[in-house]
Amino acid sequence: MPYRLIYTGLALVAVAAIALGVALSPDGKAVVLPAPLESVSPQPGDLVPPQAILEIDLEVGYEAQITVDGWPIADAQFVEATGVYRWSPSPTHPTISEWAPGEHTVNVVWNTYTGLPDTGSFEWTFRVG
After folding, report:
1. pTM score, two decimals?
2. What H or E segment, with its residue span, contains residue 123?
3. Rounded-to-integer distance, Cα 56 and Cα 78, Å
């Protein structure tokens, strides 16, 4: 008789784990980014820890102006050879010293730095928890 209780308890734990996984999983929709934006991290709608790093990957030959929550980000690290911008809040930053819990909005405006102009923009939000 006790082994049946053990099996029943294990089955309930398994069902609860599966239900929790389904409830907390992403919705599965692919994020469509406009060209020349190759990737962004965190992705739109993501829930990230307070240590998250903002990363924006553009095609080579483009430069970006980045704003977070309406504040311009001038100190992002940029690797010209790859087109990747990386930034995270720091205590020395004049406006954003840490990721506060809640929703944050990132806006990226890009243009080519050689050749004909090719401007565009993309805005998304993510949550810090």
Report:
1. 0.76
2. strand 120-128
3. 9
List, in sequence order, every residue forming a beta bridge with 107; answer none if it has no partner.
67, 123
At residue 47, what are phi and psi to the nearest 5 degrees?
Answer: -105, 120
Tell me the C-alpha distance between 47 and 107, whole Å: 18
The rounded distance, in Å, linking the Cα atoms of 34 and 122 is 8
What is the β-pairing status of strands 102-112 and 84-87? unpaired
Per-residue pLDDT of the chain (129 residues; tens, 9 = 90+): 677 888 888 888 888 878 766 666 656 667 789 999 999 999 999 999 999 999 999 999 999 999 999 999 999 999 999 999 999 999 988 889 999 999 999 999 999 988 899 999 999 999 998
Place of tokens 């069902």: 15
Taking CA atoms, 103 is separated from 9, 42, 44, 88, 115, in Å, by 38, 12, 11, 15, 37
- Alpha carbon distance 35, 28 (integer Å): 21
| Summary count for the chain: helices (H), strands (E) | 1, 9
